């Protein structure tokens, strides 16, 4: 059934008008600046002075543990698995685990509402924050949209409606702010389902990218960067197309295509969620990072609807990360990217899924690339922010590539 989206509270999917955004420098408009107290950005923002160890301890009972090396990459966790819904949900980004968890929470009466994104009625690629109160309404949230929208601006309306138990589905910069403010929000129970996020940009700019991928960009209904080094496109007429990463028109994008926020954010895998639902280590399936008891409770809700298997890992990431770092340095310095000769691309494009890092090693590769990118771009564009914005775990990730703290960039690695 089509879910209702409107500004009254009679349907299962409720979108409210939100206040205007306060002007901010580095900002992905998570919604805090539109709330009753916009000054809370100072405490809530991951782009100002994030405290990952402190919030990890608050949420999970402990910060990431250096004795468990994968926590350096992915944040604290109890277990990681590959997973797929046995009956994939049509319209979902992968098999729809995220949506199904939301449905189960509502069906079982565990929450009063789920705060998440639906598609904006004027642009199916544009996210729009909504509060969903009935399981059937979750259908409106399925799938990935590109861009950001003020998710957390609906926290105050949720409280005003008397919702005490809330689930929030969000990307890392939204979940950081949510956790930083959690204690003062006054909800009795909060379930947090996070997805990884990287390389996001404003929806308007994303449309320019779609226009480079097809003569009929409006017919593209789905896009995903898969772990087999291909981008999958789906079209309105049911066609599917897989484009090797190397064939993407990335070099035709303007230098400001990705905003500085998304080139420098430090939490790819949403370390403050109860459960992260991604795909990077899934080798074609979904990848779940269960971070605490509440995350396990959320996974348990799926019962035998979900197929679980161990995560795998293969290959070596160092060469790929080094090559990436050299290119980031060139582009940050205004130099053209070192591009592979045209004749070599199809060969390397064929080889990458076969010999490139896979499973957990692929996920580690992407997290290290993002960490490298953060340090290089921030140093170049906002050097004064390096000290407060780059947490210790990021410095530890980039150290093997020769990027170490310089004078004025902060102290001990454990912070
Ligand atoms: C911009 C972006 C980049 C991503 N990059 C990666 C990545 O690099 N690696 C990786 O493993 N996973 C990434 N993901 C997550 C991945 O695309 C899937 O969303 C996730 O694996 C869940 O799949 P699913 O089938 O369970 O989701 P579904 O059941 O289809 O549910 C998707 C959920 O995501 C929410 N959502 C969609 N778009 C947005 C948005 N723009 N902002 C906030 N919430 C949104 C929806 O409201 C819905 O609740 C990214 C997601 C986004 C939004
Ligand atoms: S991202 Fe959120 S917390 Fe940060 S400045 Fe923007 S509105 Fe404020
Ligand atoms: S890439 Fe980072 S900053 Fe940008 S939208 Fe995603 S989580 Fe937020």
Radius of gyration: 21 Å
Order of helices and strands: EEHHHEHEEHEHEHEEEHEEHEEHHEHHH
- The helicity comes to 25-40%
Distance between the termini: 49 Å
Which class of secondary structure composition applies to the elements? alpha/beta
Description:
- With 415 residues, the chain is of the alpha/beta class.
- The chain contains 14 helices and 15 strands.
- The protein has helices at residues 41-44, 52-60, 69-74, 97-107, 155-160, 172-185, 203-213, 260-264, 293-300, 318-332, 345-355, 360-381, 386-389, 392-398; strands at 5-6, 13-14, 79-85, 113-120, 123-132, 165-170, 189-194, 220-225, 230-235, 240-244, 275-278, 286-290, 306-310, 313-314, 358-359.
- The strands form 3 sheets. A 10-stranded mixed sheet has the order 1-2-5-4-6-7-11-12-3-13, with helices on both faces.
- α10 (318-332) runs parallel beside α12 (360-381).
- The longest helix is centred in the last third of the chain and has 22 residues, at 360-381.
- The relative contact order is 0.14.
- Flavin-adenine dinucleotide (FAD) binds next to α4, β4, β6 and β11.
């Amino acid at each position: 059934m089509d879910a209702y989206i409107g500004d009254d509270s009679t349907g299962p999917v409720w979108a409210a008008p939100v206040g205007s955004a306060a002007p901010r420098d580095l900002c992905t408009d998570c919604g805090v600046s539109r709330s009753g107290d916009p000054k809370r950005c100072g405490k809530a923002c991951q782009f100002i002075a994030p405290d990952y160890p402190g919030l990890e301890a608050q949420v999970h009972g402990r910060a990431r543990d250096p004795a468990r090396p994968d926590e350096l990459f992915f944040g604290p966790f109890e277990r990681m698995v590959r997973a797929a819904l046995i009956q994939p949900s049509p319209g979902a980004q992968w098999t729809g685990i995220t949506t199904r968890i939301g449905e189960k929470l509502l069906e079982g009466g565990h929450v009063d509402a789920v705060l998440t994104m639906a598609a904006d009625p004027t642009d199916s690629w544009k996210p729009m924050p909504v509060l969903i109160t009935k399981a059937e309404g979750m259908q409106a949230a399925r799938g990935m949209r590109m861009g950001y929208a003020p998710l957390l601006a609906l926290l105050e309306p949720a409280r005003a409606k008397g919702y005490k138990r809330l689930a929030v589905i969000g990307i890392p910069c939204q979940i950081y702010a949510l956790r930083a403010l959690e204690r003062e929000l006054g909800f009795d129970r909060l379930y947090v389902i996070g997805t990884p996020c990287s390389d996001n940009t404003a929806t308007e700019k994303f449309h320019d990218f779609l226009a480079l991928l097809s003569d009929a960009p409006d017919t593209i209904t789905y896009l995903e960067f898969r772990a087999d080094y291909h981008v999958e496109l789906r079209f309105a007429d049911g066609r599917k197309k897989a484009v090797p990463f190397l064939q993407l028109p990335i070099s035709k994008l303007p230098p400001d295509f990705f905003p500085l926020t998304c080139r420098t954010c430090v939490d790819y895998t949403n370390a403050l969620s109860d459960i992260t639902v991604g795909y990077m280590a899934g080798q074609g399936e979904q990848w779940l990072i269960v971070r605490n008891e509440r995350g396990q409770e959320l996974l348990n809700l799926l019962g035998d609807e979900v197929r679980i298997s161990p995560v795998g890992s293969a290959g070596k990431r160092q060469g790929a990360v080094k090559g990436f770092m050299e290119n980031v340095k060139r582009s940050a310095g205004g130099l053209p990217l070192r591009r592979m000769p045209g004749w070599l691309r199809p060969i390397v494009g064929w080889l990458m899924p076969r010999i490139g890092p896979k499973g957990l090693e692929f996920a580690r590769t992407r997290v290290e690339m993002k960490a490298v990118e953060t340090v290089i771009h921030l140093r170049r564009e906002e050097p004064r922010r390096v000290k407060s914005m780059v947490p210790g775990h990021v410095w530890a990730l980039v150290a093997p590539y020769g990027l170490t703290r310089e004078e004025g960039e902060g102290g001990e690695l454990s912070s």
